[in-house]
Structures are given as structure tokens and as C-alpha cells.
Specification:
Bound molecules: copper (II) ion
Radius of gyration: 34 Å
Order of helices and strands: HHEEEEEEEEE
Number of strands: 9
CATH topology of the largest domain: Immunoglobulin-like
Shape: elongated
Strand order of the largest sheet: 1-9-8-5-6-7-4-3-2
Number of helices: 2
Number of domains: 2
Distance between the termini: 104 Å
Structural class: alpha+beta
Helix content: 25-40%
Length: 197
């Protein structure tokens, strides 16, 4: 009898196992293999999940400054002025002014609008954008770049406001001045109604 069999403590009948046990032994490697495949599949799913979250994270990280630009100074709100009936002006601390006019008067939703921004006492920014956001509800991304006109300090553009699920909502229009040392914002608030008046 070989020494290996003796060391394993097997009896002399090791070579004559019942067929049931022999069959069980044959099953084991394939079951273990399947379990290994399952574990590999689980790991692959986890890896795929991690890659996906990383991709989403990167997209959010890149889109964040676009959606929520890091603004420096924000001009004070001018509550006394009604943007729906005419142009309004906001002032920065250095007395630089931003005047916004939206036509047609009344600022109807779902209708083409014309925007005019006039800067006073402000050096020509690299870019001027006009952003519309719901004050107490998310109305999505509503921003347009305004183009310089022939008159110095005057920028213009067009756009349209989406219809709200509510009858009346408050908007904040922000003129964003992209300057060499950051972004300044001049906010203006107004209400819109679905009826448009
Ligand atoms: Cu709304």
C-alpha cells in the first residue's frame, strides 16, 4: 500500500468507494467552478457600477460650474422696479450699473423675448450671459449669451421662457458678467402668469 494513503488516514477500501460518493466527488469541481463564475460576475457588476458612478460624477463635476457658476459679487436686488413694465437697473458696490430690458412688456411665457443689457461704468467683460431661474422651483437651464451691439456697453439677445405648471411663478433673471477676475451677477426678479398678464 502506498505511503500517501496511509498518511491521509484512509482505509484499505478507499479504492472501492460506493458509486454515490464517487458521483458526489465528480459534481464538486463543476459546482465550485460555477460559484467562481458567479463571484466573478458579481465583481464585474460592482466594477461596472463603480465605473458608471465615476463617469456620472465626472459629468456632474464638469457640468456643475456651467449650471451653477461660481459668482463673486452679486448686485443688490432692486425691489422698487418692475421689469414687466420697463427696464430696471441694478448697482454693484463700485456703482457700476447693469440695466436690463425685456420686451415685449409684461414678459409673456412661451413667446419670443428680446433682451437688452446696458452696462454703465463697467469695463467690457469677456462675455455677458442672461440666466433665468425659478426662485422657488427648478425650471431647468434657461440661459443665453448676449452679443455686443454697435453701441459700447450694450448687449442683446433673444430667448423664451418655459410655461410653468403653476399659474404664477417668480423668476430671477441674472445678468452674468464674465470678467478677467471672475463672474459678477446682477439679479432682477419678476413674476409670470400662464395667462401672460
Ligand atoms: Cu415654474
Amino acid at each position: 500500500m502506498p505511503a500517501t494513503q496511509a498518511r491521509c488516514g484512509t482505509t484499505g477500501v478507499a479504492g472501492q468507494q460506493p458509486p454515490a460518493i464517487a458521483a458526489d466527488r465528480q459534481m464538486k469541481p463543476s459546482q465550485a467552478g460555477r460559484r467562481r463564475v458567479d463571484r466573478l460576475a458579481a465583481l464585474l457588476w460592482i466594477a461596472a457600477g463603480l465605473l458608471l458612478s465615476a463617469a456620472i460624477g465626472t459629468a456632474v463635476y464638469k457640468a456643475w460650474p456651467l449650471l451653477y457658476p461660481q459668482t463673486g459679487e452679486r448686485a443688490a436686488l432692486n425691489d422698487a422696479c418692475d421689469l414687466r413694465s420697463g427696464p430696471c437697473t441694478a448697482y454693484f458696490a463700485d456703482r457700476g450699473s447693469v440695466t436690463l430690458e425685456i420686451l415685449p412688456a409684461g414678459i409673456p411665457v412661451a413667446k419670443p423675448l428680446a433682451f437688452t443689457v446696458t452696462l454703465g461704468g463697467i469695463r467690457r467683460p469677456e462675455r455677458v450671459e442672461l440666466d433665468f431661474a425659478g426662485v422657488d422651483m427648478d425650471m431647468g437651464y434657461n440661459r443665453t449669451e448676449l452679443a455686443p451691439t454697435q453701441s459700447p456697453g450694450v448687449y442683446s439677445g433673444t430667448g423664451m421662457l418655459p410655461i410653468c405648471v403653476r399659474n404664477r411663478m417668480t423668476w430671477e433673471a441674472k445678468v452674468l458678467l464674465f470678467e478677467a477676475d471672475g463672474i459678477r451677477a446682477a439679479p432682477f426678479r419678476f413674476d409670470t402668469t400662464r395667462a401672460g398678464h
